[in-house]
Amino acid sequence: MNTTASPKTPLPVPSDDHLEERSRRARTEPMSVLSLGDGLYEVESASEHTYLVDLEGGRCTCPDHVFRNARCKHIRRVAIEITAGRTPPPGEIAVPCHDCETTVFVGEADPAPFYCEAHTIWPGDTVVDRETGDRLTVVDVSVLRADAVRIDAAGCTVAEYTTNESYDPDVPVVGAIYPHATVARHGVVPESLRVYVFPRTRLEKQPTRAGSA
Ligand SMILES: [Zn+2]
Ligand SMILES: [Zn+2]
Q1: What is the pLDDT of residue 159?
Q2: Residue 96 Cα, ligand 1 centroid: separation in angstroms?
């Protein structure tokens, strides 16, 4: 009786070879993924075939899915692109920032304008008025639109105000003050401390300088 142990051999991996192959090809093959909205993605393969992927439905128009009902390399690739942040997930779309070329993912129903993280403004931020070049400090970022907010002193809406005519009327308004405004002790609040209301797109966020307080 031969008591010598058999040579050590790796156990067969209990998986479908096709499955592994699809997973590898999903990662390595050149494919372009275009988000179409409504959870649909157009995938162009290296062979220049174009397939439509419904990610949430787990469907693809390629033969591998249609005839073998496989989780094909196209469906996998869409999932990989989303995980990597290169393609928006279902329910979101990719749009350019209003003030730069950066692509941002926003909800499909979100209203424009859209801004990247660097151009999103918050109370306390410094902005520049594109009309005058004046620097201002943001005190409020509203959800109200320029054509819905009235300037009582002018008797019109923010959108209708003369110097705002070239800006879209359907953008949110931003309240800002001129930072040089100072208030004397017990003094009257100067005109310059008033909050001025601007269409969002009229103001451009100033980059925060490294090291500045
Ligand atoms: Zn496919
Ligand atoms: Zn930007």
Answers
A1: 96
A2: 28
